[in-house]
Structure formats: C-alpha cells, structure tokens
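Anyone able to model this chain together with adenosine-5'-triphosphate?
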Amino acid sequence: MPHELRLRGVGRRYGLRGPWVLRGVDLTVAPGTLVRVEGSNGSGKSTLLRLIAGIDAPSAGRVTGRPRRTAYVPERFPAALPFTAAGYLTHLGTVHGLSRGAAARATAAWLERFGAAAYAGTPLARLSKGSSQKVAVAQALLAGPELLVLDEAWTGLDAAARAELDRAVAERTAAGGAVVFVDHDPRRLAGVADVTYAVRDGGLDRRHPGGTAPAAGPCVVVEAHAAPGAVPPAEAHRWAGSAAETAPGVHRFTVPASHSDVLLRALLTARPPWHVARVTPAAESPEAPPPPEPQSPPEPRPACEPEPGAPSGPGGRR
Ligand SMILES: Nc1ncnc2c1ncn2[C@@H]1O[C@H](COP(=O)(O)OP(=O)(O)OP(=O)(O)O)[C@@H](O)[C@H]1O
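re: yes, here you go
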C-alpha cells in the first residue's frame, strides 16, 4: 500500500434525519498493518468497514489514501449471482485488472488453497454457505489487494479454510498491504493485530494492548541462521511468540504452529535470506498466558513460552 489510508471527521447516518451511526471518526491505517475492529452488535463496525473499503460514502468528513487495489469481503455474500464459482472469480479478476489468463490461474490457485477446487464449475446459487464463503474470500484475494477489508470473513469457513485465510492475511501484511478486520471470535489472529479499535457511541476507542488475549495452541521452534548481528525481519517478530539469539548468528523463534509458515516465509524472503536450520515441535504445548496488563504496551505477540534456558538477546521478545 503506497500511502496511509486516512479517515478525518468521518460520520455516517442512514437517511437525512437518521441517527448518526458514526460521528467525527479519525483513523489512520498505515501500510503493512493489521487492524482489528471490535464493538457490540449494531455499534457500527460494518458501517465503518464499508467506509474504509469504499463500498459506502461518508455522510460527513473525508476518506483519503485508499489504494487502487482495495478488496472487501462483506458480512453477507450475494450468492445468487448467475455465475459458476470459477466464472465469477475469473470475471472479477479481470475487473481487478488481471488478464483473462492471469485471472483464470489466480482463480484456480485460490479455489485450491481454500479446498474448493471441486466446486469450480458449480453455479454460485447451488453452493453451500461454507463454499460460497470460500468464493467470497477468494474474490478479495485474487489480485493481491493493497488494502483488504474483512467483515466476519471467517464465519462459515471450515477449520482448514480459516487457517488458510489467516495465512493469506499474513501474506498481505508481509507484502506491505494493510488488513482491517472484524471477527466475533476474540481468538481470531489474537495477539497479532498491530492495533485494535472498539466502535462505541459512534466513535473509535483505541485499545491497548491488542484488545484480545494472545493465541494459544501447539507451538514449533524454528532455528534459523544469519550473519552475526543480523536483526530478524520485522515480519518475523510479528508472528513469533518469542525470539532469541542463542549464539552469534543463531536465532531461535517459538511460534504457534498455525503461524509457522508465515514466519518461515518472512525469514526465507528476507534480504539477505536467512537459513532455516531446523523446525521442531515445541517440547510442551504452552498454556495460554495470563491476560496482559491493561497499560503495558506494546501489544502482545502470539503466545508461545520461550524454551527453558533460552537467553533473551537482541532479538528478544518485544
Ligand atoms: N443500510 C442501512 N440502512 C439503515 N440503517 C442501517 C444500514 N446499515 C446499518 N444500519 C444501522 O446502523 C447501525 C450500525 O449497523 P452496523 O451493521 O454497522 O453495526 P455492526 O456493529 O456491524 O453490527 P453487527 O455486530 O450486528 O454486525 C445499526 O443500527 C443498523 O441498523
């Protein structure tokens, strides 16, 4: 994403005399950031996401800096369109600026990643809710969006597809894109968001830290080698629960298994690339840590306990 997206004094109300759903909202979304939006039912989260995505226009204020490649997954996908899944995605790919061949290839690749390749020729109207949600998500990812806006996009996906969407989000931020999401499950991408906002009384509260507890689950330990003194790429820090330089040029990252391939990609695509020496399951699956202190920035990373005895070094836990 080339620039920050900015909302300045943004308000939205439905109808000339309708109540203000949002009012005086200021928000900046920086390139490469992951932004969580929370709020109670009906507080205006979807309204905010539609304004960010450019699907809706503010009644007051301005939105600037929205990148050309902005993609949006709505809370409800209009599944009754007269297309097959592949036909719809290929068509949208061309709308996003891809050639027909590139759109067809991207369509096949994303349907495959989400486990929906078997439904490529199925009319959208005949897809199950879960499969049509896969199409909804694939259409947003097709053209490598610089800004990705996800409104409850995980809802209805099976576990494998939910994990795949987590990975796709990580790829977008690693590529310098921004992702703004709402999800009713507080564990979704827990501890990974750069910033969390709560929509309340028409405004936005910035929450510290993270707003949600870090993710728990099985962890793996990645040992990677780099030149002595090399600093791990920022993207590695985002996904690793802990990082330590255990010997000159030898780094050990502990990361939730669900995030491990994103960490590996960050290391292998760094310039110069890091050498991944070993990936092993963490000896013990850690318990979820206690909730973070309310005033203790920075926001938590994914939760994995450092291995016993691992010293914290220059690449230590943030
Ligand atoms: N198109 C619309 N026309 C009229 N009112 C609307 C429209 N869209 C949203 N609203 C109203 O705006 C308010 C905020 O709705 P919105 O869907 O943005 O909230 P939300 O936080 O996303 O809710 P939920 O958590 O239930 O999805 C609600 O009172 C809703 O009824």
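Residues 159-174 form the longest helix (16 residues).
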